[in-house]
Amino acid sequence: MDMLYDTDRAEYYCLRCSFVGDEQDVQRLNAQFREKYGARTVRITDF
Question: How many CA atoms lie within 13 A of 30 on its CB side?
Answer without folding.
Answer: 9
